[in-house]
Amino acid sequence: MNVHQSLIQQDMNDCTKGQSLLPLQQAQEIFLNDVQPIAGTVSICLNQAMSRITAADITTDISLPRFDNSAMDGFGIRLEDLSMAFPRTFQLTGRAAAGHSATSNCTPGSAIRILTGARVPPDVAAIIPQEQVTLAGDTILISSVPRPGANIRRQGEDILAGSIILPEGTMIDARHIAMLAAVGLTQIQVVRPLRIGLISTGDELADNGWDLNQNGIVDVNRPMLRSLMVSPMFDIMDFGICPDDPELLSQALKDAARSVDLVISSGGISGSETDCLQRAILKSGGEYQRLSVAIRPGKPIAKGCIGAMTIVGLPGNPISALINFLLFARPALFAKLGIELPHLISTKARCTEDLPRRFNRSEFIPVQVGKTNEEGEPLIYKLGSGSSSSLSPLVAADGFALVQSGTGFVEAGEPLDFYPFKNAFSVS
């Protein structure tokens, strides 16, 4: 039996075990179906606004620009002079610079020197760029007729007073902060931080190598997941490691429900006799649902709730936990904040070797980007054997490539969806 036949047999075994594998998009829709946004807002200053979510439409009571101003360095002339014959010589009678008033009015037959950003005097109808005039002492020669309003930025042409500058549910970034600063806002109302709890489950786990027994494993999921949620949008609480004991896990979840909006747990959802997340949630009076998704790694994903607290159950293997965090937990976090997060952004890349398809599961594989082909498309190389517990291929990879389910092979040179880590590992 070759490698491809072995993969098909494994996937067919999944089917014969009675597991109904859901397509990824359908599983995501089911997972997010009843996730309810949190309530509560806070007022913050502008220098704390990055990556926060606006709690309501933000409006402005001023216009931008605040006044008519010059779009470039040049010379201003009056409206009636635009109807005169050109070329024409004008006498310079004044000057206007940014932050200063004009030194004199613009009289008929005269021009004033005007610099970028300067308030345009009311009698100036057009500004001629300095590159288009000939300067001789205190006179200028204008060769061609300018159009009325040329190179003048009018008051309110960008933003009118009373306009909405940021709609409710906007995730604020540097562009938005520039707008808020421009209209003079120093305090804004945003959605309060989402309170998130982290729990890892497993008798074998320890926080560091010094605490390991001879059969132990260091828990990498909590540090990894915490690093994926570094943002002022989130307030992370670490509830540590819980052994494979439904009573202890039930108590930990009930404790968490008193202080957080959402818990992300890892481990305890594959269905073996030691997996206890379902029993712990039900014992706590909550609800539980496990989905089997047609992806690899990361087939199982669990969701639940205890009261208003949402629970996201990830697999225990690190790569499975990472993929399911990106595909399920990450959108759930933003649903709790009241906004819809776009799906992970992919690009097209070309594989450099034949890659087997799985019969009924799409596969995310760690890949490294090499050179580009003649069309400028990145060429990607598979790393590792595909084990969901192997970290070295993940560390060396530049992202994941998605091999869609099917029969046969993806032949070398065919395009694949490529998900760069530089996009995937950002919460925004």
From TrEMBL:
Family per record: Belongs to the MoeA family.
EC code: 2.10.1.1
Protein name: Molybdopterin molybdenumtransferase
Catalytic activity line of the entry: adenylyl-molybdopterin + molybdate = Mo-molybdopterin + AMP + H(+)
Organism: Afipia carboxydohydrogena (Pseudomonas carboxydohydrogena)
Record keywords: Magnesium, Metal-binding, Molybdenum, Molybdenum cofactor biosynthesis, Transferase
Domain of life: Bacteria
Keyword Plastid: no
